[in-house]
Amino acid sequence: MNRPIRVAVTGPSGAIGYSILFRIAAGDLFGPNQPVELRLLSRDTDQSRLRLKGVMMELADCAFPLLADMSAHTDEKDLFDGAQCVFLIGAQPRKEGMDRADLLRANGEIFRRQGRALNERASRDARILVVGNPCNTNAFIAMRNAPDLAPECFSAMMRLDQNRATARLAEHLGLPVSGIEQVIVWGNHSNSMYPDIRFARYRGKRVDNQLDPQWQNEFIQNVATRGGQIIKARGASSAASAASAALDHMRDWILGSEGRCCTMAVPSDGSYGIPRGLMFGFPCFCPGEGRYQIISNMPLTPEVKAHIDKNRDELLKEAQAVSDLIF
Ligand code: NAD
To answer: Are 126 and 39 in contact (CB under 8 A)?
Structure first.
């Protein structure tokens, strides 16, 4: 048996945490031969501690053969000590009267602190995925507060948006989701994101010529507002699908995407006119061993370019609003 991989998770007793932990421990992230050690953030309140205790009792009761160890930590430096794989899920939810700028700042403080703790204690080749919203800017803040870690250690999650777009496209075409590839979502995980299906393929064949233009317009709106539709239907926000997307993102990143293109928000390398370092959703390939490459030569139409620029401007504005929280 391999040595356990150390996985740190914040927000472990939230809705996404409650789904992702059981799947990681069951082997859905690293496969059936790779044990894991879970390190979980316990927030410093009685209610939070008790909730996490309950989650850990359930994890123990699953008797997962791959769960080598688990521990709760109130100190973030302890939490991240030697962590090789990190899910930053916990975030301050929007409270009544808070606008997006207030939310950015409240979360900025959390991700600045966590970036510093990661910088001091995480493994130098840690793969760190930010899920907590606003995830692109939270990841940007964490990265900029961890100068001793390579920027490529950080990414933010746009895979749920890609999965949603892929599922809508498969439904529309009446085809199984498994054969659909090359669906891209550009930009920010916000309502401005731009799902791009111009290059989508089913088993290698392009499908863009089979799409009704009216449906395509609705599709973009539909993907961007899917989270709201789920809240309306379920009375709670997406949790299992977000956890599943986080696993897809991390698995492709660490183990490789087997030639498939996947959307990841990663620090820009200047491609498509996005300023270097901005955490932007790009089409990527993952060759394995924790590496990714931005696919930098997708042709853009003026319309797509306008959407990309809108997302760039939105993220620049967010970065400006938290400029005092970064190096
Ligand atoms: P939840 O409300 O069920 O849980 C939130 C978790 O965050 C809890 O564990 C809570 O203890 C923790 N938390 C709250 N305030 C905190 C603080 N100040 N410091 C540290 N931790 C804190 O929420 P959830 O459904 O699990 O969602 C978690 C985050 O993921 C939210 O920010 C949500 O918007 C985001 N999300 C992102 C995507 C995406 O695609 N990127 C998709 C779905 C949800």
So the answer is: no
Tens of pLDDT, residues 75-120: 999 999 999 999 999 998 877 777 778 889 999 999 999 999 999 9
Sign of CA dihedral 40, 75, 42, 109: negative
First to last CA, the chain: 42
What does the block give as tokens for 18? Answer: 């409650």
Pairing of strands 127-130, 154-156: parallel
Dump the DSSP string for 305-326.
HHHHHHHHHHHHHHHHHTGGG-
| Interval 26-77: pLDDT, tens | 999 999 999 999 999 998 788 999 999 999 999 999 999 999 999 999 999 9
Q: 281-294, pLDDT tens digit by residue? A: 999 999 999 999 99
pTM: 0.97
Catalytic residue list contains 172: no
CB contact at 8 A, 296 and 271: yes
For the CA of 238, the closest atom of ligand 1 is 43
What pLDDT is attached to residue 125?
97
Q: Report whether residue 308 contacts ligand 1, using a CB cutoff of 6 Å.
A: no
Q: Which position among 172, 189, 249, 307 bears the catalytic label?
A: 189
Tell me the C-alpha distance between 195 and 165, whole Å: 7
Binning the chain into helix, strand and coil, the percentages to the nearest 5 are: 45, 20, 35
68 alpha carbon – ligand 1 mean position (Å): 26
What local confidence, expressed as pLDDT, does residue 38 receive?
A: 98
Gap from CA of 212 to ligand 1 centroid (Å): 37
What average pLDDT does this structure show over 7-23?
Answer: 97
pLDDT of residue 147: 98
Atom of ligand 1 nearest to the CA of 189: 41
Tokens of 214: 């009216």
Query: Number of H helices and number of E strands within the chain?
Result: 10, 14
